[in-house]
Amino acid sequence: MTAIAPIFGTKRKRNGSNVIPKVLPVQLLPAQLRPIAFRIFTKKHNLTLKSDALKLLAEWVGQRCGVEWRTTAEPRLDEIARIWGKREESNPLVSEDKLVPILRDIDVPHTIKSVSTKNKKDDVESLDIPQSKAVDIDPAKYLVVIDAFNQPKWVFNPHRKTFEKSLEPPCIVAAAASHKPGFFRERYFVLKQRLLRNEAFQAPSFSGSQISQGKDYHKITSIKNLLGRAGQSFMLFGMLAIAPQGHLYLEDVDDTVKLDMSEAARVSGDGWFAPGCFVLVDGTFASDGRFRVLTLGHPPVERRQLSKEIYGHIDFLGLQHGERETEKYLRRAEHHFENAKIVVASDVKLDDAKTMNALKNMFEHYNGTTIECPLAFILCGNFMSNLFHTNGFSAQYKERWNALATLIDSFPHLARGCKWVFIPGPNDPWTSSLYLPRKEIPSVFINRVRRVCKDCVFASNPCRISYFTQDIVIFRDDVLSRLRRNSMVFKPAVKEQEQGDDSYRPPPDQDDIPDDVKAARNVLVRTILDQGHLSPFHVSIKPVLWDFDYTLRLFPLPTALIVADADCPSFEITYGGCHTINPSSLSFGSNRAGWVEYFPARTKGQRVDKSI
Q1: What residue stretches are annotated with the DNA polymerase alpha/delta/epsilon subunit B domain (predicted)?
Q2: From the CB of residue 166, how many other CB atoms can be counted at a distance below 10 Å?
Q3: 430-449: buried (b, 16+ CB within 10 Å) or exposed (e) per residue?
Q4: How far apart are CA 100 and CA 356, in angstroms?
Q5: Cβ atoms 119, 17 nearer than 8 A
Q6: Which H or E run includes 62?
Q7: How far apart are CA 156 and CA 178, in angstroms?
Q8: Is residue 424 within 8 Å of residue 476, measured between CB atoms?
Q9: Whether the Cβ atoms of residue 512 and residue 146 lie closer than 8 Å to each other
Q10: Using CA atoms, how far apart are residues 125 and 121, in angstroms rounded to an integer?
Q11: pLDDT of residue 181
Q12: 3-state DSSP assignment of residue 377
């Protein structure tokens, strides 16, 4: 593959001296590797190797270094020890389970640094990857599905201004009552610390010189500090809530204040505002205790790169990634597979003949020899047209899944060559269709699909996909209609402010979309990403599992967000550096099928429409 050289490093020499022959693996015993491993891990890096870790290293070195392992293993082991020291600072005991992801990451071809030389500034630019190494990377190995219920829980500490790993495991059923207000406080602190990093909310270092130049900044005032300051203007930050009497209130962690919305206006294009949303409120405090709102807006979004610079050392997904040097290797490998794609289809109703026909046409589209096989198929519910109920419905539901297994089995190339991910919708079975996140579809219904598909995952809703350096969030919910039902109505909007780099960037081929559809998708995407949450509603509107609210959090912003909303037309838009896609329904119209292809290397989606 000639494209590997300009991506991974310097140009290949014409005489072929840069091409390395394949390594002949050898069977290496742990006792043979122990002296070198002891010298590198224990004497140099003050680490202790457990017996299972030493056995794993012996197998890995024997496969990667071959017969010359005595001369080539030392720099590789040194690199592994350095990465361990950065990822597990407080854990000197090297174990097999935490060593596996490190070995997987450094399997990406890169130059091994000498043990005796110091790091150079141009190490990344001088990566020289032999051409023979290109075929060693299997991108499917780096595509990992993270279930919401397996995601580690990180809690924000407002005093230390950082995230800390929760010592108490989250609970689905018997969650403590104190955890209910706790997750709203968590949302508040995460959004506020993001808000205060925005340049518009940072006080100037030299106030005299800044004011003389006509520059100003916004200051957030706590609600409890409004007392005795009637007639003054303030900017507040808190959560919208409706009292039992029907009045609208704003809440923060200290107090509440009643809002007078008679003169309120929102910034044009600034999203929907429903109870449960955290908002910035600009207005005047009145003598009767009400806060007269002039303008209302969402907290500004923070780009993923900035969040990663601050919290890049935190492993939010539990994959033990984060070592920046390794991440650069992964990014180069990610860009090499330019045509690798993930196929996403939504509202795959297995009891609908038109949808099954559309699904068959989609499989036929990728089964030919002219189109490269996708990395994965992601099929989102609802998998039935009607809401699941236990009264005689289970047999019919299982029969529909057996029919899907038969259909997939008729395309053996796809069944065995792709990863299959199934995500439940609101109509699919579990303890309740109301709560988020939702558990995966029970295994009693899908045994035959598991036998047919070589690599299949029945994931929660929502779930995440990690692909090299990318974080892809997949969420199946009819969030657009819920926002429309519960959003507040304002008077005509004020003039829209300049949005700079965070402005919308729709693809050029979507200029023919009707204006009302454009407005709906723009406001939907902005509401979700500005709120930093997949379900920015009060629990009375959309209940969530208290202890698992953190799995709905969008911080840092994902690389891509797939919102599978059947009630919203298909769209593709970039906002705040996050590429958001809605595949809409698989079957639409009288005889049309549509789905989305996502290309991670380009961070871009592509709509595919076919007649059936």
Answers
A1: 342-571
A2: 13
A3: eeeeebbbbbbbeeebbebb
A4: 40
A5: no
A6: helix 51-65
A7: 16
A8: yes
A9: no
A10: 9
A11: 82
A12: strand
Class of residue 222 by CB neighbours under 10 A (exposed 0-12, middle 13-18, buried 19+): middle
Q: Could you list the beta-strand ranges (E) of 300-381.
A: 342-345, 376-380
C-alpha to C-alpha distance for 521 and 525, rounded to whole angstroms: 6
Q: What is the pLDDT of residue 276?
A: 95
Instruction: Confirm if 47 and 6 have CB atoms less than 8 A apart.
Output: no
Query: Would you say the C-alpha torsion 101, 103, 107, 108 has a positive or negative sign?
Result: positive
Under CATH, which number does the domain 304-491+500-603 receive? Answer: 3.60.21.60
Nearby residues of 285 by Cβ (< 8 Å), 6 or more positions away: 226, 229, 230, 231, 232, 234, 257, 291, 292
Q: What is the DSSP string of 231-259?
A: T-EEEEEEEEEE-TTS-EEEE-SS-EEEE
Are the CB atoms for 182 and 207 separated by under 8 Å?
A: no
Low-confidence residues of the chain: pLDDT under 70: 1-22, 108-136, 174-175, 205-215, 267-270, 320-325, 369, 389-392, 430-433, 491-514
Structure tokens at 372: 């490269």
Q: What angle do CA 6, 74, 54 make, to 5 degrees?
A: 115
Q: Which two tokens stand for residue 450?
A: 């598991």
What is the separation of C-alpha 491 from the centre of its chain, rounded to a whole number of angstroms?
Answer: 35
Structure-token pair, residue 329? 């290797």
Tokens of 476: 């199946």
pTM: predicted TM-score of the whole model, two decimal places = 0.81
Which DSSP string do the residues of 115-126 spell out, in sequence order?
A: TTS---TTTTTT
Report which residue type is found at 191: L
Q: What is the pLDDT of residues 316-364, one digit of tens each?
A: 998 865 556 577 788 888 988 999 999 999 999 999 999 999 999 999 9
The per-residue pLDDT for range 49-79, each reduced to its tens digit, is 999 999 999 999 988 888 888 888 898 899 8
Q: Give the C-alpha separation, 527 to 533, whole Å.
A: 9
- Residue 91 identity (one-letter amino acid): N
Residue 52, pLDDT score: 92
Domain extent listing, the chain: 4-13+22-137, 207-297, 304-491+500-603
Only one residue has tokens 């200051």, namely 219
According to CATH, what is the number of the domain 207-297? 2.40.50.140
Using CA atoms, how far apart are residues 388 and 268, in angstroms rounded to an integer? Answer: 40
User: Nearest CA to 57 among 23, 102, 111?
Assistant: 102
State the Rg of the chain over Cα: 27
Task: Record the tokens describing residue 41, joined without a space.
Answer: 């891990």
What are residue 75's DSSP bridge partners? none
Residue 560's nearest CA partner among 529, 584, 588 is 529
Alpha-carbon span 189 to 195, nearest angstrom: 10
DSSP state of 309: H
Measured in whole angstroms, the distance separating CA 244 from the mean position of its chain's CA atoms is: 36
Question: Torsions phi, psi of 164, nearest 5?
Answer: -125, 145
Residue 476 in contact with residue 423, Cβ under 8 Å? yes
The reply to whether domains 207-297 and 304-491+500-603 share a CATH topology is no
Are the C-beta atoms of residues 111 and 123 closer than 8 Å to each other?
yes
What is the distance between the terminal CA atoms of the chain, rounded to a whole angstrom?
Answer: 37
CB count in 10 Å sphere of residue 351: 16
Provide the token pair at 436.
């988020």
Instruction: Output the six-digit token pair for 55.
Output: 């056995």
Alpha carbon distance 95, 91 (integer Å): 10
Enumerate residues 6+ apart whose C-beta is below 8 A from 442: 429, 430
Closest to 533 measured CA to CA, from 471, 475, 458, 478: 475
